[in-house]
Every structure is written in structure tokens, then in C-alpha cells.
Design goal:
The protein is of the alpha/beta class. It is 34% helix and 17% strand. It is built from 19 helices and 22 strands. Helix 10 links the parallel strand 10 and strand 11 (340-345). The protein is globular and about 80 Å long. The two termini are 35 Å apart.
Length: 612
Amino acid sequence: MSLISIIIVNFNAGPLLSECVRSALASTAPVEIIVADNRSQDASIADLRRRFPGEPRLKIIENADNLGFAKANNAAIPWARGDYLLFLNPDCIIQPDTLARMLETMAARPDAGMAGCLIRNPDGSEQAGCRRSVPTPWRTFIRLTKLSILAKYNPRFESYVQTGQPMPDQPVEVEAISGAFMLVRRSAMDRVGLMDEGYFMHCEDLDWCMRFHQSGLEILFVPTVEILHVGGVCSHSRPISVEYYKHKGMVRFYRKFFRRQYPAMLMWLVLMAIGMRFLVRAMGYLLTHTFIPKPTPMLTEPPHPLPPPPGGGHRKILVTGASSLIGDYLLPELAGLGFEVHALSRNPPRRVPHPLLHWHRLDITQDDPGDAFGAEAIVHLAPLWTLPPLVEKLAGSRVRRVIGFSSTSLFTKFQSSYEKERLMAHGLKNSEDRLADLCATHGMEWTVFRPTLVYRLGRDKNVTTIANFVRRFGFFPLVGSGHGLRQPVHAEDLARACVQALDNPRTHRKAYNLSGGETLTYREMVERIAHSQGQPTRIVTIPLPAFRIFLRGLSCLPIYRHLTPEMANRINLDMCFDHGPATRDMGFDPRAFLATGPEPATARPEPLRARG
């Protein structure tokens, strides 16, 4: 059978994502699965990695931002190798023979460009939208005004939703199917083009169906194949935003396809009705849902239980500086392992709640942490100089394990000509020494990590600065050849190091240099970043004095205020550190720069947005 590339766009789908992937991997048809994550804030991706470690058929792409449904699907398509692509929602459960039977139908209907199946709600009813007519302005007007009740007297008043109509007993051609399950022939997609990224979410599936029809391709509804779709899992935390994008998509759809086919008055009536419908639904949500969180729908059978953490029970961990780029990966990883996580931040972000993740608004430099919420361990992601005073405050608590983050800047900036950098390096050294002394005094075991160039694309101050500069100005300035060596390390690898060291006695009372899995020159690093964005590599060589003046001026801009003239001197210096001891003691295995795992055979360089 032909290979099917399954593309799943995820946003806070929770454990249902792993259930969806589990059901897809059990297919009798050959599959590969590409999960495109739109910067989820729950534990769904951590749970997926834990449930399927080393699964060769699974690839995870983490987008730096929430790209929306169409754009995230399009970004994942270049990684797909199959002759067929299945666009599947993360809260769908399929059967082992689902895809094989769909392939049989497509093989028997060579004129079909895409196909959908019968989608069931958790209660067993047919889900609206899995077979439907195109919602023309007239049909939408009929549905919004409830005139569809007259359809039994005149078919002209039929709505575009076909739910409740007699179920066919064989595949039939329909005008549109649901984007929750769309099996698309690759040759047909190449003919029609990708999804319209002008839609953020909702209506992009209708748009695609319209374009398939306009290309002369059939769209099939296969009633003999059924799947389960929970529905609303990725959108339950932000109902008003979802309604806004849904109605905005409807307006775009009508203006794109029907603006010149219908009287202007009817179009205006439809657009006004859409606007009024959004206002009514938004007000309803504000009145009934703002202060009452809607529970996440559950499957008819519960997902597999999480494995117990080391030592059993819900052990409590305190994470300071939790809204940092490392925290984005560490928090869901710890919660997914079953730890009760208490995350501290001066400005806690809005997060989809996890039953084991608790956010606290607290400034550790001023506020008293009390008993650290009963935690037995601290992972300190805030600046290291704030950790020794915190350890003193927690001397009488249950805390017996401390992990903190320093930096290899301790070595590279110790003799900097820039006084602020020298003071920072000396401060790191003093903080490390004081932490060791305090932990020995209070009976705590400590570990310090010194990462090199930390990146998480879209969030860091180094790699992302280069990316933004290249994208904005179309070139990048360098002093000399840019032959200084670098080892960028991804924030997720650092989060994993925390988990690997947490209960590992071999890491006690030690400091580790944590570098990335690839050594490359500064010039190569810039070229890699530019190439991954699809930008031409234009590097301009600038004399050192001019470059120092350039950096000083650039640092006056808010987005570049972290730049210093001293950086010019270091571009041609090697800044490499051995992470061998970390590999030996805790299995630290960092990725290559900008890598996300094994690349498919037809892979192109990964887009910059494809890693968090």
C-alpha cells in the first residue's frame, strides 16, 4: 500500500494528542506522522515524547509561535514523503483498518482528489460538517435566519449542513468535508496548491474544497469508515478568540468566492448576520464562561496512565524563573512525569492549566517563599546570583536538592575590556562558590550547569537576534573571517539535563559545561540561520573599529540593547567547552544546531520557525 503522511497540528491537546498518535501508529497501512506544534503550553509534547521514545515514524516540529492551522500544515508538508497526506486533528481516534480502507476507496476512484469519512462525536452521533454542501451566501442566510425549517416544503431552503439526512451506503461525491480528517492525494494537492494561509483557523478546509472542485477533482464522503472526534480540545481555553477567527474566516471565504456572484445587498446582509452572530456568541461566552473554566472533553476510554516519577507519589519541585525559555520545556516535562510543579515568576504567563502545574506570582529577590510550597527540590532558572540568598531563606524547609544555571560567560568574559561584562563574570564565580558553601552548611546537594550559547528560536537573545537582523536588513556584518568557533545549545536539551540530573547522585556537588552537539564557526552559524529562513547569505566584512561603533549605536535600539561593543572582539575567538563529563554522568546528548531529529530522505533545510 502507498505510504500515508499524517500531519497533525497541535495546540494544547493534552493527553489526547498521544492517544491520536497511538491510534495512527497502529494502522495496518504504512504511515509516517508529523506533529506540528503551535507553541503549546501544556504537557502534550512532553507526554508524546515520553510515550513514543525513538519512534522512527514520528517527527515533531515545534513552531516558535502559534502559526494557525493552515500555515502550520503548510510548513509541515515539505517533510511529508507519502503519496497521500492525511490532515488529522489531534483529538481524533482512528481504527487500525481506517486508512487501509480509505486507500482502497481512493484507488477505485482515480478522479478523487480528497476524501473524508463518517466522523462520530463521543456520544456516537454524527458530527456536523463531515459531509456538507458549500455554504453559499444564500445557504448561510437560510441557516442563520432559521428558514431551513421550510426545507421540508421546498429544497431551496435547505441548509448547507447534511447531518440528519439519510446516510448513503457507499462512497458519494460531496461538495465539502471536515478538516478534522482529510485524506488528500499528493498529485491532486500539487495541482491545486497548499492551504490558504490567510485563514488562521476555520474555513481553510472549505476554501480548499472549493479550489479542488474548481480544478475538476472529486471530493468523496466514505460513510462505511468511521472515526471518533472529541472536538474543541485545542480551542476550549480561548473560546472568544476561536469565535473571532471562525467568523473572520467566514467573511474571507465569502468575499473570496462569491463577491461577484451574488447581489451586493445579499452579501451585505450575510456579512452583517455573521458580525451579529459573533457578537451574540462572544457575549454569551463572556457571561457564562469567563470565570467558569470549561473542562476538557474526555475520550470514551481513558488514556494510558502516566508512569510514576522516581520514588513514587507526587513529589513537589520548585522552579524559579519559570517563564524563561528553558522553563517552556522543563515545566511540561516535569508535570508530565508526575511531579507536582510550583512555578515562580514575577509575571506568570497565561497557561492552559495542568493538574500538577501551579503558577505563583512571586519575586524571589523581595518576597518570602515560605516553605517553598513543600518542595524537596529547586530548579533555579533565574539569574544565579539570586540563588544563594534563596537557599538561605529555605534553610529550614524540605528542600534537599538544588540545580542552578550559571554560564560559560564565567570564562569568556572574565577578562573582558568591558567592565560590565567583567563584573558579571566575577559575580557568576562568586555565586557558584557561595552556593556550594551554603548547600554544604544546610545539607543540600547542588548541581550547577554552565550552558554555552543558549537558543530557542523566537525567544533567545542571540540566535534570534541574528535571524531578525538578517530578515530585516538582508545582510549580516562580521569582523574579519568570523572563524571563532561556537557550540549553540538548545533550551530543550538543557531542560532534559535538569530531569536527568534531578535524582542522579553522580551529579551532586558538580558544575558542568553544557555545550551543543555541533561545533561550527561564527560565519557558519550565521549562514545556517540565514539559509534556514530561505534568506540569501550576504555577509559584509566591517573593520573592527567601525563594527564596535556599529554595535554601540545598535544597542541604543530596544530590541538590540543587550549588544555590547566587546562582542566584536569575540567573533573570531573560539568559545568551545567540553560537555563530556555531563554525557558520562547523566547521558547528556545535545542535538546539532537547528536540528529536530532524523531528517526524511527528501528533507530540505528546516525553516527557522520549525524549532521553538
